[in-house]
Amino acid sequence: MQRLKCCVVGDVGVGKTSLIHAFMDKSVDSVKTTMGIDFFSKSMYVQTTTVHLTLWDTAGAERYRSLMHSYLRDSQVILVVYDVTNPHSSIVQWLHLAHQFKPQVVCVVGNKNDLTALRRNVAELLVPWQRQHCRLIMGHCSSRTPTSVKKIVANCVEAAVDISTTPPLHTAFDTVQFVPKRHNSQKCCT
Asked: What domains can be seen in the chain, in order of their start residue?
């Protein structure tokens, strides 16, 4: 069995807790604001192995940001959640925070996809982040449709399992020999 730690971060009110409740097959109608950190766990079957996934739901309020660093440490997957109807979501700030902890997978998830308001396109924001050390996944979902949430989380878990089970590449290096520079026996000022 493989264990994966997944943290969910984002602004206040983007639907982080609702997203987790949808993934856990819980009702999203009675979700309350997260105070500090909340914890969930679920086992799932990925490829040929069982994965025990721990989900850490972080509060988006500024007063809880100091707690977040200790929970993001050692995360293999970080979900950056934003509201697709809110053009002022601070996605870049959350990506900076996520990349400080060097997760294997970062997933930028647009939540509230079921609302018909103008949707924010974040593809151009993610271009600089595609060259980072981790795998970047982007998707949209609605916590009102659990299948869309489960599909995104499953993609993240599969990507993390692929990375952790792939043997490292052995790169052949060319040997370089340094030859000392020959000094000319003649001097210019004799």
From this structure: 2-165 (3.40.50.300)
Q: For all residues of the chain together, what is the average pLDDT?
A: 78
Residues 82, 33: Cα–Cα separation, whole Å: 16
Could you list the beta-strand ranges (E) of 116-174. Answer: 135-140
Is residue 130 scored above 70 in pLDDT?
no
In this structure, are residues 116 and 106 in contact, taking their beta carbons and an 8 Å threshold? no
Using the predicted structure, report yes or no on whether residue 144 has a pLDDT greater than 50: yes
pLDDT for 52: 93
Cα 9 from Cα 72, distance rounded (Å): 9
Beta strands in 35-149 (DSSP E): 37-46, 49-58, 77-83, 105-111, 135-140
